Amino acid sequence: MEKEKQPHITVSITKEQLSRLPMANYLGNIVVVDRVEDAEAAITDLRDSDIIGFDTETRPSFKKGVINKVALMQLSTRKCCYLFRLNRIGVPDTLRDLLEDESKLKVGLSIHDDFHNIRNVCGSFNPAGFIDLQPFVKKYSIADNSLARIYGILFGQRISKGQRLTNWEADELTVSQRNYAALDAIACIQIYDWITQGKFIPELSPYMHPEQESEREERERREEKERKKAEALLNPPAPKEILDKSPAAEAKRRRRRNARIRRKAALRAKKAAAKAANDMEPGNSNPSLPTQP
Predict the structure, then answer these.
(1) pLDDT in tens, 174-200
(2) Which CATH class name applies to 9-234?
(3) What is the value of pTM for the model shown?
């Protein structure tokens, strides 16, 4: 007898379930890097770690069409999180080299959005050695995309998002801001470690349920959309040629535009003349003259 096919398992936590979980807290060290000369020591310690947690924060904008540049980058080892204040120091070469180093494992979530924001600060940027946890956890039947939900599923704790919409360009970051930012970065390491060490078994999760057909189709559409988005961000289109606005260039464009207009007018006149000649030939009625009764 053919063995019955097992249904696809999906793991997902609801908003209500997540709200009932106890709050997670950051317990490691935090170092704020707001001077370029302090970045080298931080990078040295990060390079000694076998894994780096990654995240960024941007000051929220409450005005339509206004988007602020990324203000903070969090890079964490298992013991210490470094908060690089990019709005003050930019992206130093030592930091860029670390982010582009393929040999250094770095984990984050929805990292392609972060890459796009970083490029707005430093221009050309080719990240390497990164693992995006969003597609990574899909291999283990976790359907949720947010860091808070994934963390809740694995550890039964809730990451507060109360500081997300605060001012990340403030003169001094508050203790709450620092702890929030550091927890987001180290949580990526904890999630990666927990899964790769085989400590998460989807079938035993209290948030497991058989995947419905509609859920499967939605999941596949979402994964395809995320894949195309990732490809587009990793291979950005070439920048558009900068338009020369000098008087000479403007005059040249006007001459070309006027020449195109004259050619089109001449072509229309030629077609009209040919039609008129054809209408005047014997046997052809002239549509411009009234028909005799």
Answers:
(1) 999 999 999 999 999 999 999 999 999
(2) alpha beta
(3) 0.71
